[in-house]
Amino acid sequence: MTTTTILQHSHKNKAFTSLLAFLLGLLGAHRFYLHGATDRWGWLHLAALPASLALRQLLPGADWFYQLLPLTISALIGFLEALVLGLMPDEKWDARYNAGSGRASDTGWPLAVVLVATLMLGAGTLIATMARLFDLLYTGGAYG
Q1: I want to staple 51 with a disulfide (CB 3.0 to 4.6 A). Which of 32, 33, 35, 70 is the partner?
Q2: CA 129, 134, 140 angle in degrees (round to 5)?
Q3: pLDDT at 8
Q4: Do 87 and 22 contact (CB within 8 A), yes or no?
């Protein structure tokens, strides 16, 4: 007689994942939550912090914008990932991330709040980043 063991995988919450991407996306927390410590993209997000610190040490006279650029880019990507993951239909989410959990996702209004906040802060950060970049590139930082 043989017995088969069914492996139960932990259920991944879509609203929590979107919240992680919104709050800590620049460090890749949402990637590590979904894929574990072996996720290469998560480590690339996390590498933005030492890259910014290295730029600060190597180029102390450079504008703060350039020193924080790796973290800014990682944060913008995190905002985009929060929107992509949060707007994914529940059925597709469950098929991709909860196939072995035995539970179905049912997202509600907390996810909508996270998505609205992500869109507001993400769009504002993108506009501010583009404005500062154009200011530095075309006027040498004359406006700030």
Answers
A1: 70
A2: 120
A3: 54
A4: no
Contact (CB, 8 A) for 125 and 79:
yes
120 three-class SS = helix
Instruction: Please give the Cα distance from 33 to 38 (Å, whole number).
Output: 11
Which class for 24: exposed (0-12), middle (13-18), buried (19 or more C-beta within 10 A)?
middle
Among all chains, which residue has been given the structure tokens 């650029």? 69
Between CA 95 and CA 89 the distance in angstroms is 10
Q: What is the pTM of this model?
A: 0.87
Is 55 in contact with 44 (CB distance < 8 Å)?
Answer: no
Q: List the structure tokens of 106.
A: 């049912």
Q: Which tokens go with 135?
A: 């200011």
Query: Residue 102 to residues 16, 36, 93, 95: CA-CA distances in angstroms?
Result: 18, 20, 13, 11
pLDDT of 7 over the 60 cut: no
Residue pair 47/61 in contact (Cβ under 8 Å)? The answer is: no
